[in-house]
Specification:
The chain is of the alpha/beta class. About 35% of the residues lie in helices and about 25% in strands. It has helices at about 20-25, 45-50, 65-75, 95-109, and strands at about 5-10, 30-40, 55-60, 80-85.
Length: about 110
């Protein structure tokens, strides 16, 4: 089933912050997906990402080519109606994106 919003997170050596970032996003809503592209990290980023057990979450690992290629890979994986780019060290506030999506839906209708 298509999700409303896809969060794409490129991560490079983000072991200090990626867990908190993903956890906060997963608290937002059930109608989302979180896609993390591990951009060739040499720290524990991939190990941390492999611990998530949520059907709305997935990640893939790529060689280190940079943030633009990681974001493009995330776009290819995304199935959401909307796409939001988030950096691995960002913390998303509750309801921030849901309010924006609701406003956009009301403007379109």
């Amino acid at each position: 089933m298509k999700k409303k919003l896809s969060f794409i997170i490129p991560a490079f050596n983000a072991e200090d912050c990626i867990k908190r970032c993903v956890e906060k996003i997963l608290l937002l809503d059930d109608d989302i997906e979180v896609i993390v592209i591990d951009d060739g990290s040499s720290d524990g980023t991939a190990e941390i990402l492999s611990t998530f057990r949520d059907s709305r979450f997935r990640f893939c690992s790529l060689p280190h080519y940079g943030v633009s290629r990681a974001r493009n890979a995330g776009i290819e994986e995304a199935s959401g109606e909307y796409i939001c780019f988030v950096d691995a060290d960002d913390v998303i506030l509750p309801n921030s994106f849901l309010r924006t999506m609701h406003s956009m839906s009301n403007e379109i209708d």
